[in-house]
């Protein structure tokens, strides 16, 4: 059931009044699109770390865990990126037993890719172009669960 504006507003209030802001790792190779998503999530009360590709996503996750901070509360990743794809990054995270809710965004979301992303832990998948409000609502949902 889609969230109404008031339900989304209530969820935003819960995030804003929480003691610790949810930590999101966002991996997207398009700088303008990455900035758009990061800005929207920050307005919703998230702390957002930004990665340019899958390799940087894995590196940032490893660094965070090595310093004792634990995994991010949520990972949002594009699938097709240079250096290392989002699917390869997710496979690496899964192999290392690093657990975090995952939202996948892609312009190439056929059924086979969707199934592969789900096997690698994706809880939601958005095909570009998508409504940014829907992504924000999903992020809020995963941050609260």
Model description:
With 145 residues, the protein is of the alpha/beta class. The chain has a single domain, classed as Response regulator (Rossmann fold, 3-Layer(aba) Sandwich). It is 49% helix and 18% strand. The protein contains six helices and five strands, in the order H-E-H-E-H-E-H-E-H-E-H. A five-stranded parallel β-sheet has the order 2-1-3-4-5, sandwiched between helices. Helix 4 (86-95) links the parallel strand 3 (74-78) and strand 4 (102-106). Helix 1 (5-17) packs across helix 6 and helix 3 packs parallel to helix 4. The radius of gyration is 14 Å and the shape is globular. The mean pLDDT is 86.
Quick structural summary:
The chain has 145 residues and is an alpha/beta fold. It is 49% helix and 18% strand.
CATH class membership: Alpha Beta
CATH architecture: 3-Layer(aba) Sandwich
Secondary structure tally, helices: 6
Please tell me what the overall shape is: globular
Widest sheet: strand ordering: 2-1-3-4-5
- Rounded mean pLDDT is 86
Count of strand segments: 5
């Amino acid at each position: 059931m889609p969230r109404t504006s008031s339900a989304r507003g209530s969820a935003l209030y819960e995030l804003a009044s929480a003691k610790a802001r949810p930590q999101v790792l966002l991996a997207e190779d398009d700088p303008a699109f990455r900035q758009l998503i990061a800005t929207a999530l920050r307005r919703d009360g998230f702390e957002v770390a930004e990665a340019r590709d899958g390799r940087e996503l894995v590196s940032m996750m490893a660094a965070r865990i090595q310093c004792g901070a634990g995994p991010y509360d949520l990972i949002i990743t594009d699938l097709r990126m240079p250096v290392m794809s989002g699917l390869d990054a997710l496979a690496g995270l899964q192999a290392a037993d690093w657990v975090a809710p995952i939202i996948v965004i892609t312009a190439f979301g056929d059924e086979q890719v969707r199934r592969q992303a789900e096997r690698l832990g994706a809880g939601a998948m958005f095909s570009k172009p998508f409504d940014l409000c829907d992504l924000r609502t999903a992020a809020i949902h995963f941050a609260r669960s």
